[in-house]
Amino acid sequence: MKGLDERINESLDILIKNEALIGYELRSMLKSFKEEKKEVGYSFGEICYWHYEAFTDCLNEDIYKIAAAIELLILSFDIIDDIQDQDSNYSWSKTPELSLNVAVSLLVMASRIISGTSFEHKGTAIQILEEYALRSINGQQLDLLNICRDEQSYLQMIDQKSGSLTAMGCLIGEVLAKGEISSEVEEYGKYIGIIQQIKNDVQSLKAWGPKNDLLNKRYSLPIIYLLSQKNDVSKAVINYYNGDIDAILDNNATENELTHGGAIRYAITIKNVYKFKALNNLENVAINELGKDFLKKLMK
């Protein structure tokens, strides 16, 4: 029996091949980018599938097309995000002007694919896709502006940027199955995205390279905590962020302060708060054990 990732990947191949409105050059780039995406898996499409499977009595094979459509939208966001951040080794970052056309094509294709399926509630699914995609774009705008410099505003931003996309996958699956959505699914869907973002924030600080948020003067939960401390390291980081030409960052001292001074522990504690909330909501939703296990893995 084929695995879920494999079924989604097959649907992606077919959908890309059969899209008549794109030419050879665009199709070739799209196929290439999809192959790179395949390496990290299709968790957003899987989220959609498990929520559809949980609430339906009869599996419609078009669900794999829906999962693929969601992955096309996520890929478009990944491409745009990496081009904006200029910190990716993916091939789409090497030709940004051409890759943007691929990203825009993917956005349009996602809606077209859902519209072409046989689901009764596909119109509502498209509305959810558009609404939560716009919420995520708004969060991405706030992130790029780098203006969320306290815990509350930062969590609100990643709720929009990351939480909206995971909630979108959950809710599309649910609405296709039963024609309505539930607050429990929306809430833990958002929490999963927040958890994933906090994990990425912590991971960013483990290597002193071009993707390090602190070296790039970006704000994240561990950095917000560090900047709130009144010690020599935090003062040096504040001066660095303020553009003081005499500011010197001691990488070892800064890394030690992040690791042992409470900043990373603080971020992990916040992550675990959202994990606890998500697990509480998940217990009230009738997803089978395979689906629940998959969602719990995303919360680790």
Automatic annotation (TrEMBL):
CDD domains: Trans_IPPS. Transmembrane segments: none annotated. It holds the Pfam family polyprenyl_synt. Its cofactor is Mg(2+). Keywords: Magnesium, Metal-binding, Transferase. Belongs to the FPP/GGPP synthase family. This is Polyprenyl synthetase family protein.
